[in-house]
Design brief:
Elements (H helix, E strand, L loop, with lengths): L25 H4 L4 H11 L9 E5 L3 H12 L4 E5 L6 H7 L3 E3 L6 H8 L6 E4 L4 H10 L6 E4 L7
Helix pairs in contact: 2-3
Protein backbone atom coordinates (compact mmCIF):
# COMPACT_ATOMS: atom_id res chain seq x y z
CA UNK A 1 0.00 0.00 0.00
CA UNK A 2 2.94 2.31 -0.57
CA UNK A 3 4.36 2.10 2.95
CA UNK A 4 6.67 -0.46 4.49
CA UNK A 5 7.86 0.24 8.00
CA UNK A 6 8.32 -1.19 11.44
CA UNK A 7 7.65 1.61 13.87
CA UNK A 8 6.06 2.31 17.22
CA UNK A 9 3.87 5.15 15.90
CA UNK A 10 2.80 5.79 12.29
CA UNK A 11 -0.31 7.39 10.78
CA UNK A 12 -1.70 5.22 7.95
CA UNK A 13 -4.96 4.06 6.42
CA UNK A 14 -6.29 0.91 8.08
CA UNK A 15 -5.91 -1.09 4.86
CA UNK A 16 -2.14 -0.55 5.02
CA UNK A 17 -1.70 -2.12 8.46
CA UNK A 18 -0.83 -5.54 9.77
CA UNK A 19 -0.90 -5.76 13.58
CA UNK A 20 1.88 -7.92 14.96
CA UNK A 21 1.63 -9.71 18.29
CA UNK A 22 4.19 -8.17 20.68
CA UNK A 23 5.35 -11.70 21.58
CA UNK A 24 6.23 -12.50 17.96
CA UNK A 25 9.87 -12.95 16.95
CA UNK A 26 10.93 -9.80 14.99
CA UNK A 27 13.23 -11.93 12.77
CA UNK A 28 10.29 -14.01 11.61
CA UNK A 29 7.97 -11.02 11.33
CA UNK A 30 10.38 -9.30 8.94
CA UNK A 31 9.17 -11.82 6.37
CA UNK A 32 5.87 -9.93 6.31
CA UNK A 33 7.58 -7.20 4.31
CA UNK A 34 7.57 -7.56 0.56
CA UNK A 35 11.28 -8.21 -0.02
CA UNK A 36 11.66 -11.89 0.75
CA UNK A 37 8.18 -13.04 -0.24
CA UNK A 38 8.28 -11.11 -3.53
CA UNK A 39 11.70 -12.31 -4.64
CA UNK A 40 11.19 -15.87 -3.45
CA UNK A 41 7.70 -15.99 -4.97
CA UNK A 42 8.88 -14.74 -8.37
CA UNK A 43 10.98 -17.89 -8.71
CA UNK A 44 8.90 -20.43 -6.80
CA UNK A 45 5.64 -19.69 -8.62
CA UNK A 46 7.19 -19.77 -12.12
CA UNK A 47 5.99 -23.04 -13.62
CA UNK A 48 8.62 -22.84 -16.39
CA UNK A 49 11.58 -22.57 -14.02
CA UNK A 50 13.71 -25.70 -14.07
CA UNK A 51 16.91 -27.05 -12.58
CA UNK A 52 20.26 -26.59 -14.31
CA UNK A 53 19.14 -23.25 -15.81
CA UNK A 54 20.86 -19.87 -16.02
CA UNK A 55 19.56 -16.92 -14.00
CA UNK A 56 20.58 -13.26 -13.90
CA UNK A 57 19.47 -10.89 -11.15
CA UNK A 58 19.83 -7.12 -11.29
CA UNK A 59 19.72 -5.49 -7.85
CA UNK A 60 20.97 -7.18 -4.70
CA UNK A 61 18.61 -5.81 -2.09
CA UNK A 62 16.19 -8.01 -0.17
CA UNK A 63 14.19 -8.88 -3.31
CA UNK A 64 17.22 -9.74 -5.43
CA UNK A 65 18.84 -11.82 -2.71
CA UNK A 66 15.58 -13.72 -2.25
CA UNK A 67 15.48 -14.41 -6.02
CA UNK A 68 19.01 -15.80 -5.82
CA UNK A 69 18.19 -17.94 -2.81
CA UNK A 70 15.05 -19.37 -4.43
CA UNK A 71 16.84 -19.97 -7.75
CA UNK A 72 19.50 -21.95 -5.92
CA UNK A 73 16.82 -23.91 -4.04
CA UNK A 74 15.17 -24.80 -7.36
CA UNK A 75 18.46 -26.02 -8.80
CA UNK A 76 19.71 -23.20 -11.04
CA UNK A 77 23.29 -24.00 -11.97
CA UNK A 78 24.47 -20.54 -13.03
CA UNK A 79 23.28 -17.49 -11.10
CA UNK A 80 24.61 -14.10 -12.20
CA UNK A 81 24.26 -11.28 -9.65
CA UNK A 82 24.51 -7.71 -10.94
CA UNK A 83 24.67 -4.58 -8.79
CA UNK A 84 26.56 -1.28 -8.76
CA UNK A 85 27.50 -1.85 -5.11
CA UNK A 86 30.26 -4.46 -5.10
CA UNK A 87 29.99 -4.63 -1.31
CA UNK A 88 26.89 -6.79 -1.82
CA UNK A 89 28.71 -9.48 -3.81
CA UNK A 90 29.86 -11.58 -0.85
CA UNK A 91 26.35 -11.94 0.57
CA UNK A 92 25.01 -12.67 -2.93
CA UNK A 93 27.49 -15.56 -3.13
CA UNK A 94 26.39 -16.77 0.30
CA UNK A 95 22.80 -16.83 -1.01
CA UNK A 96 23.84 -18.81 -4.10
CA UNK A 97 25.21 -16.47 -6.79
CA UNK A 98 27.91 -18.11 -8.89
CA UNK A 99 29.10 -14.93 -10.66
CA UNK A 100 28.96 -11.25 -9.68
CA UNK A 101 29.31 -8.16 -11.85
CA UNK A 102 29.18 -4.39 -11.49
CA UNK A 103 27.49 -3.06 -14.67
CA UNK A 104 29.16 0.33 -14.13
CA UNK A 105 32.55 -1.22 -14.87
CA UNK A 106 31.47 -2.92 -18.08
CA UNK A 107 28.25 -3.35 -20.07
CA UNK A 108 26.25 -6.17 -18.49
CA UNK A 109 25.07 -7.52 -21.86
CA UNK A 110 28.63 -7.97 -23.11
CA UNK A 111 29.73 -9.52 -19.82
CA UNK A 112 26.81 -11.96 -19.75
CA UNK A 113 27.36 -13.01 -23.39
CA UNK A 114 30.86 -14.15 -22.43
CA UNK A 115 29.22 -16.63 -20.04
CA UNK A 116 25.96 -17.43 -21.86
CA UNK A 117 26.41 -16.93 -25.59
CA UNK A 118 22.72 -17.01 -26.51
CA UNK A 119 21.32 -15.37 -23.42
CA UNK A 120 20.04 -16.10 -19.93
CA UNK A 121 17.08 -18.42 -19.44
CA UNK A 122 15.54 -16.41 -16.57
CA UNK A 123 16.29 -12.74 -15.86
CA UNK A 124 14.95 -10.72 -12.94
CA UNK A 125 14.98 -6.94 -12.56
CA UNK A 126 14.81 -6.06 -8.86
CA UNK A 127 15.74 -2.39 -9.21
CA UNK A 128 12.77 -0.42 -10.54
CA UNK A 129 15.12 1.34 -12.98
CA UNK A 130 13.65 1.39 -16.50
CA UNK A 131 17.08 1.20 -18.16
CA UNK A 132 17.93 -1.85 -16.07
CA UNK A 133 14.58 -3.43 -16.97
CA UNK A 134 15.57 -3.12 -20.61
CA UNK A 135 18.99 -4.64 -19.93
CA UNK A 136 17.34 -7.60 -18.21
CA UNK A 137 14.93 -8.09 -21.11
CA UNK A 138 17.69 -7.88 -23.71
CA UNK A 139 19.81 -10.38 -21.77
CA UNK A 140 17.06 -13.03 -21.87
CA UNK A 141 17.72 -15.96 -24.20
CA UNK A 142 16.35 -15.22 -27.65
CA UNK A 143 13.42 -17.46 -28.41
CA UNK A 144 12.56 -18.86 -25.00
CA UNK A 145 14.14 -16.75 -22.24
CA UNK A 146 11.87 -15.20 -19.63
CA UNK A 147 12.36 -11.75 -18.14
CA UNK A 148 10.57 -10.90 -14.91
CA UNK A 149 10.25 -7.26 -13.85
CA UNK A 150 9.84 -7.10 -10.09
CA UNK A 151 11.09 -3.59 -9.39
CA UNK A 152 8.51 -0.82 -9.63
CA UNK A 153 9.49 2.18 -11.75
CA UNK A 154 8.86 5.70 -10.51
CA UNK A 155 5.59 7.31 -11.58
CA UNK A 156 5.67 8.91 -15.03
Amino acid sequence: MGCSTFSEYTVLCAISLAKINPAADPRQMSLLGCGVSTGWGAVMTNKNFHSNCSVAVWGLGAVGLAVIQAAKARGASRIYALDVNEGKFEIAKEFGATHCHNPMTRNSGEWLREHEQWGIEFTFDCTGNVRVMRDALEAAHRGYGESTVIGVAAAG
